[in-house]
Design goal:
Keywords: Cytoplasm, Lyase, Schiff base. Catalyzes a reversible aldol reaction between acetaldehyde and D-glyceraldehyde 3-phosphate to generate 2-deoxy-D-ribose 5-phosphate. By secondary structure, the chain is of the alpha/beta class. The chain is built from ten helices and eight strands. The chain has one domain: TIM Barrel (Alpha-Beta Barrel), CATH 3.20.20. α6 packs across α7 and α7 packs across α8.
Length: 224
């Protein structure tokens, strides 16, 4: 059980320092990477067009590059997601956060959802794949099915949210996801995590990674 006494270094080790705004410039990404190195976060999470910039900025550091794929709707062709994944890794990404095909899940096209995720996993090779299920658009049963499909399709994580829909991560959703995937699979909470209290609550609910844009502020709270 984590408390407000968690160390700054330990908390940073759970964080993907995130910048996914559509108006983000290369200079913004370079600043994000410099912050990630200074803060000690595990990774930066960015759009695929910025992977090359981030990879160059992080050269020689331990900070990983996470690229989103099919973001934020999850609705591109599976082949397009697979190709985006391939190019992101070629440009330096070591992790992929792909958005599930939400409409297919809603209409119970589970085979299509699984094949969509598997196409990304195959293109990712040894890179870790996280599946964003966009919990705010799903019923609890749909969340369970989405998590089970992600596991069976060969992903390594499930992730709550893009941060671009109606709502972000909740403790209840993280608990549900953890219950479905078991203790060894990854769960990433993202969207709306802006303070130390919320970050700790997500970890205690079962998250093993946090997608946050307010990393500096949260870690400053932990430092205090």
């Amino acid at each position: 059980m984590y408390t407000d006494q968690i160390t700054r270094k330990e908390l940073a080790s759970f964080m993907d320092h995130t910048l996914l705004r559509p108006d983000a410039t290369c200079a913004d990404i370079e600043r994000l990477c410099a912050e990630a190195i200074q803060l000690g976060t595990v990774a930066v999470c960015i759009n695929s067009s910025m992977v090359e910039t981030a990879s160059a900025s992080l050269n020689g550091s331990d900070v990983r590059v996470v690229s989103v794929v099919g973001f934020p709707l999850g609705a591109p062709l599976s082949a397009a997601k697979a190709r985006e994944t391939e190019l992101a890794i070629r440009h330096g990404a070591s992790e992929i956060d792909t958005v599930i095909q939400i409409g297919w899940l809603k209409e119970k096209n589970y085979r299509g959802v699984a094949q969509d995720i598997a196409a990304v996993v195959e293109s990712a090779g040894d890179a870790l794949v996280k599946v964003i299920i966009e919990t705010c658009l799903l019923t609890d049963e749909e969340k369970r099915v989405a998590c089970a499909i992600a596991v069976s399709a060969g992903a390594g994580f499930v992730k709550t949210s893009t941060g671009f829909s109606k709502a972000g991560a909740t403790e209840d959703d993280v608990r549900l996801m953890r219950e479905v995937v078991g203790g060894l699979f990854g769960v990433k909470a993202a969207g709306g995590i802006r303070d130390l209290h919320t970050a700790i609550a997500m970890l205690n609910a079962g998250a093993t990674r946090l997608g946050v844009s307010a990393s500096a502020a949260i870690l400053a709270e932990a430092q205090q």
